[in-house]
Amino acid sequence: MNKNKATILVVDDTRYNLQILSDMLANQNYHVLEATSGSIAINLAQEYIPKLILLDIKMPDMNGYEVCTNLKSNPITQQIPIIFISAIEDVEEKIEAFAVGGVDFINKPFHLIEVLARVETHLRISSLQAQLLEQTKLLEMQNHSLQKELSNLTGFDWALYAELQKANDCGEFILFYQPIVNLKTDLITGFEALIRWHHPERGIVYPDLFVPLVETTDLIYPIGRWVLKSACEQLRIWQQHFPNYIDLTMSINVSTKQLTEFNIVEFISEILFDYKIKPHCLKLEITEGTVMGDREHTLQILYQLKELGIQFCIDDFGTGYSSLRRLTDFPIDILKIDRSFINNDEWVIVKAIGSLAFVLGKSIVVEGIETIAQLNMLKSLFSSSLRDCYGQGYLFAKPLNSELAFELLAGNQSFTLDIATGNEL
Ligand code: C2E
Ligand code: MG
Ligand code: MG
């Protein structure tokens, strides 16, 4: 720090004090600004942004505390260290000087040598603080570019990981709900909970952009628990509110990692108890990868959960590599036929998967139904088993926020009527 260049503002309504402080500082080669009132001091501080202010407390018009509060509330002047100089003896008033943002207090009558020592100390402290801030900024920038480099080398997106950690801490995740409809009755029997990230700047972010990273890191544990808890809480509200939907179900996506989490069985049974959910109303959606993983351990957990009465569904069925044996070994209740088969009109495969499911005593959910033609095709393919056949897709409804899902339930209508009249939701 070059002390010859530092500008110091001295504020005192007593001309004599102002003069001797100014002369002493000028003799030390400081550049001195003088103010005889609070309003002059504020104007000078904003214009010249001095490195330090010596501020009297008792002044007419505006006292030193008011001047200090004003300067601290202005982003331009809030960093300037302020040393109060006053004849005040009252301890509480002295404490007030620190409460409004002063860094030090010098009693009047003052000794010039003491004032100088304190001025120099605080100039040094604030210069070090400024350096620290600069270094921190530099480190943050270096950290950011190192993370980027690491991401390029390892293929792991550290920046997204850090953002997701923050999103989890700040509660930025929300759940949407997509109805699941029975194809025999055309009525809603349940919902699938689908996570969204309500990003403060980017708006709604879809799971394809963040769930893969969440599932491969430790973030899956807190986020997975949050999803389970929130979806069950929501289910309880709807079941209680709508007597027609007392057995409404909630399907929740769970990853393989989540199933191996310590205490997962206790956690889920506590949720069922807390929200008074009948276990068969909770359907956990796992993928073919889950049943193909560590067989013994996964089986053990699945059977423990099955004992609670929970239902299991294999999601996106037909896209993975599950061995058919696993369909009988594992306690699976539902096969959810991947939407790519519907999209590509692969009806022979759809029919084959459905027939296999029914023979094994399981039901099916067909994903991605978007048109009336697709729905009619499914109804004719499975005409004799429609009771065990469910559909999900934009034709019925897109994933909805909880308010819109509530309205849908309040309507309590059959989808046949809506679809037949072309009144798509
Ligand atoms: P998923 O479990 O297979 O969910 C179905 C996806 O298909 C949803 O996408 C849904 O919006 C979309 N979909 C439904 N009907 C139609 C349709 O008629 N046409 C088309 N084109 N798409 C349809 P979303 O919500 O983007 O979710 C994507 C995936 O993210 C989910 O696939 C699931 O694997 C994962 N995911 C979502 N929420 C969670 C969660 O809470 N936990 C975990 N672990 N994974 C989740
Ligand atoms: Mg799913
Ligand atoms: Mg799916």
TrEMBL record:
PROSITE patterns: EAL, RESPONSE_REGULATORY. GO terms for molecular function: cyclic-guanylate-specific phosphodiesterase activity. SUPFAM superfamilies: CheY-like, EAL domain-like. Keywords: Phosphoprotein. InterPro entries: CheY-like_superfamily, Cyclic-di-GMP_PDE-like, EAL_dom, EAL_sf, Sig_transdc_resp-reg_receiver. One of its GO terms (biological process) is phosphorelay signal transduction system. Transmembrane segments: none annotated. It holds the Pfam family Response_reg. Coiled coil: none annotated. Residues 7-123 form the Response regulatory domain. The modification 4-aspartylphosphate is found at D56. Residues 157-413 form the EAL domain. The keyword Zinc does not apply. It comes from the Bacteria. PANTHER family: CYCLIC DI-GMP PHOSPHODIESTERASE PDEF, SIGNALING PROTEIN YKOW. This is Diguanylate cyclase. It comes from Pseudanabaena frigida.
